[in-house]
């Protein structure tokens, strides 16, 4: 079966920008306080529930994966880009990083105590999000948590350059209520939401959603 074209575009683009991304995107210590607080709360919840490891999906160079590990969470990273995975493995050789797509995770049913999707779903066309969120539901243990963070809006972006390099990916910004609806349809119940207006390095509205897979169907 042929790979969807958007996955090819994302992989090739992030292979192109990997080194520049590492230089331009701030590490977790330089995130805004509210985003760091959401990550810390998520880490505490999954650590306390003790249902399994956390998969950082779209982990890039692994900084946030390592941040979660520093918060006492058993975490591993998955990314489409081989070059991003190479950067992550070199920087954090004690952690596990694998190439893969969140559309078809190489993870057993109910294996994960948590999933982090941190600014990693906006390149996914909206018609593919039900498949992605179904994979999240499949791989989470009953009672497991999802923390989603990304840009919010109602816009399709077609940049020609990113991080100073040519790219071919697109971005799809959806209203937050629409994301909540899609998660709910996938069987993931949103328990907390944080919306932030543009500020600092971020020039678009962005948000976090904390969701949980019910313990019983």
UniProtKB/TrEMBL annotation:
Pfam families: Methyltransf_25. InterPro entries: Methyltransf_25, SAM-dependent_MTases_sf. GO terms for molecular function: methyltransferase activity. Gene3D superfamilies: Vaccinia Virus protein VP39. It comes from the Bacteria. Residues 54-144 form the Methyltransferase domain. Transmembrane segments: none annotated. GO terms for biological process: antibiotic biosynthetic process; methylation. Keywords: Methyltransferase, Transferase. The keyword Methyltransferase applies. This is Class I SAM-dependent methyltransferase. It comes from Streptomyces actinomycinicus.
């Amino acid at each position: 079966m042929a790979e969807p074209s958007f996955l090819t575009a994302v992989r090739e683009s992030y292979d192109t920008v990997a080194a520049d991304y590492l230089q331009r995107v701030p590490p977790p210590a330089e995130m805004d306080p509210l985003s760091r607080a959401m990550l810390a709360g998520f880490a505490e919840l999954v650590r306390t529930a003790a249902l399994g490891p956390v998969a950082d999906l779209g982990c890039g160079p692994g900084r946030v994966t390592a941040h979660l590990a520093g918060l006492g969470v058993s975490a591993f990273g998955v990314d489409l880009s081989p070059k991003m995975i190479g950067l992550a493995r070199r920087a954090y050789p004690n952690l596990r990083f694998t190439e893969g797509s969140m559309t078809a995770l190489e993870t057993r049913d109910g294996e994960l105590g948590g999933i982090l999707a941190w600014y990693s779903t906006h390149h996914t066309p909206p018609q593919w999000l039900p498949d992605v969120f179904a994979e999240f539901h499949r791989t989470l243990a009953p009672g497991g948590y999802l923390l989603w963070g990304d840009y919010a809006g109602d816009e399709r972006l077609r940049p020609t350059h990113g991080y100073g390099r040519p790219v071919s990916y697109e971005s799809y910004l959806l209203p937050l209520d629409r994301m909540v609806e899609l998660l709910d349809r996938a069987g993931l119940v949103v328990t907390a939401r944080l919306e932030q207006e543009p500020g600092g390095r971020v020039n678009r509205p962005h948000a976090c959603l904390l969701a949980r897979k019910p313990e019983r169907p």
